[in-house]
Amino acid sequence: MKLVIADDDKQILGALRIILSAHGYEVVLARTGKEALDLVIAEHPDLVLLDLGMPELDGLAVIQAIRGWSTVPILVVSGRADSAEKVQALDLGADDYVTKPFATDELLARVRALTRRQGGQGDSPVVRFADITVDLGNRRVVRGTGPDAIVIRLTPTEWQMLEILVRNPDRLIPRETLLTEIWGPNHTADTGYLRLYLSQLRKKLEPEPSRPRYLLTEAGMGYRFAPER
């Protein structure tokens, strides 16, 4: 079971890595909010442990960004004991909150509870629509089946956009979330990037790119993957 741990304190990161690795968890570490977002996209963890006070993006912004497209459990592990901040983190989508310094047994119990709750809800490794098969595990897109199947080449950016959309069927993914996840927090106004790459994806994947059925634009808000019913 894979965990992303995000904290700007090296000692805390080291302690959490030792504790959780010793109990059989695969651990990936992040020192900034941006790194945490990148790892959630790249690693598809079963749980995120997140500090609130981090550089580049603080923990609250990370929670909000993740919740724009993912339901992965988020456990806040923070030295901030103020009840208002706890409430804000939970309202933004965190699943639980542990205050530093924490008892190891309590932390492990919270981790077990959240990963049990998540059990069985992992994303399907294969998504199909029209004559397209998206193999998320192997990062491969194919048109057709059998000996006539053709591999569709996507750029890394096209793949990132497609993966976020297909992992969240029927969910509106805000423009700001996509821009932050793919290009970083300094590009949240660069909506032209999204239009360009979505247009390229439609040309490669939609049966009629000028009349998209699966990769949809929600005017003024964001984008949505609409699977077949």
State mean pLDDT (0 to 100 scale): 87
Radius of gyration of CA atoms, rounded to a whole number: 19 Å
Please name the CATH topology of the largest domain: Rossmann fold
CATH architecture descriptor text of the largest domain: 3-Layer(aba) Sandwich
Going by helix content, strand content and strand pairing, the class is alpha/beta
Strand order of the largest sheet: 2-1-3-4-5
Whole-Å distance between the termini? 32 Å
Show unreliable segments: none
What do these coordinates show?
The chain is an alpha/beta fold. It has two domains: about 1-120, Rossmann fold; about 125-225, Winged helix-like DNA-binding domain superfamily/Winged helix DNA-binding domain (Arc Repressor Mutant, subunit A), CATH 1.10.10. The protein contains eight helices and twelve strands. The chain has helices spanning about 10-20, 35-45, 60-65, 85-90, 105-120, 155-165, 175-185, 190-205, and strands spanning about 1-5, 25-30, 45-50, 75-80, 95-100, 125-130, 130-135, 140-145, 150, 175, 215-220, 220-225. Helix 6 packs across helix 8. The protein is globular and about 55 Å long. It starts with a strand and ends with a strand. About 35% of the residues are buried. The model has no long low-confidence stretch (mean pLDDT about 85).
